[in-house]
Specification:
With 185 residues, the protein is mostly helical. The chain has helices spanning 13-23, 56-73, 87-104, 110-123, 129-161; strands at 27-31, 39-42, 47-51. It is globular and about 70 Å long.
Length: 185
C-alpha cells in the first residue's frame, strides 16, 4: 500500500519496528485513538497505540515516532543525570528519528513531518532553532542509526527467507509464429 506521496512501505518494516518495541518491553496495538491523535506511548503500561484510521505509510511512521520517544524519553532509557527535555524538544527528537528511518527505507513523509518539527521548534520561543538542533542532533542521529540498523537487518532476513516464485525454463515452442502480428506482405 502506498502513502499520499505514492511511495510503498517496504515489506517487513512494520514488523521490524514492532519487534524493536517488543525488545524494549512494549506492546504495540492498533486501535481507535479518537480525535486527532495518531499514536501515543504509555510508558507506565509499556504500550504503544497507533490509530486504526491511518494509511499504512502514516501508521508505520507514527510507530517509528513512538519508538523514538521510547528510546529517547522513557524512564528505562533516559539517563537519571539528565533533566527531561520539554515537550517541544521531545517531539522534534521523535519526529526527526521517524523522518530519518522512513527516508532510509525509501518512504517520503512529505512536508507534513517538516512542518510538524518546525511548529515545535517555534513553540520553544525566542532563540535559535539551529542551536536546539545542534544540541539534540547527536541523540537523534544515534537513535535513528540504531533503528535503521535493526530494521534493515530484520528486513534483509525476511527477504532472504521468503520463497522465490518458481521459474520455468524457456520454451521456444511457446512463442507463436505471429508474435509480431500478422505478416503484411
Amino acid at each position: 500500500m502506498g502513502n499520499e506521496n505514492g511511495m510503498d512501505v517496504p515489506v517487513g518494516l512494520w514488523d521490524a519496528l514492532n519487534r524493536l518495541a517488543f525488545s524494549d518491553g512494549y506492546t504495540v496495538e492498533v486501535q481507535p485513538t479518537g480525535g486527532t491523535c495518531d499514536a501515543f506511548a504509555d510508558y507506565d503500561a509499556k504500550l504503544i497505540v497507533v490509530s486504526d484510521r491511518l494509511d499504512e505509510a502514516t501508521a508505520v511512521a507514527r510507530l517509528a515516532h513512538e519508538i523514538g520517544h521510547v528510546r529517547l524519553h522513557s524512564p528505562g532509557h533516559w539517563l537519571a543525570s539528565q533533566s527531561t527535555p520539554g515537550r517541544e524538544v521531545r517531539e522534534v527528537e521523535a519526529e526527526s528519528v521517524a523522518f530519518l528511518v522512513m527516508a532510509h527505507h525509501g518512504v517520503s513523509m512529505g512536508t507534513a513531518s517538516l512542518e510538524y518539527m518546525a511548529d515545535w521548534l517555534l513553540a520553544l520561543g525566542p532563540g535559535s532553532p539551529a542551536d536546539v538542533i545542534k544540541a539534540i542532533g547527536p541523540r537523534i542521529v544515534n537513535t535513528a542509526e540504531d533503528l535503521i540498523r535493526s530494521t534493515s537487518a530484520h528486513m534483509e532476513f525476511i527477504s532472504a527467507a521468503r520463497p522465490r516464485p518458481a521459474t520455468r525454463a524457456f520454451e521456444p515452442d511457446f512463442l507463436s509464429v505471429d508474435l509480431d502480428g500478422p505478416a503484411l506482405w
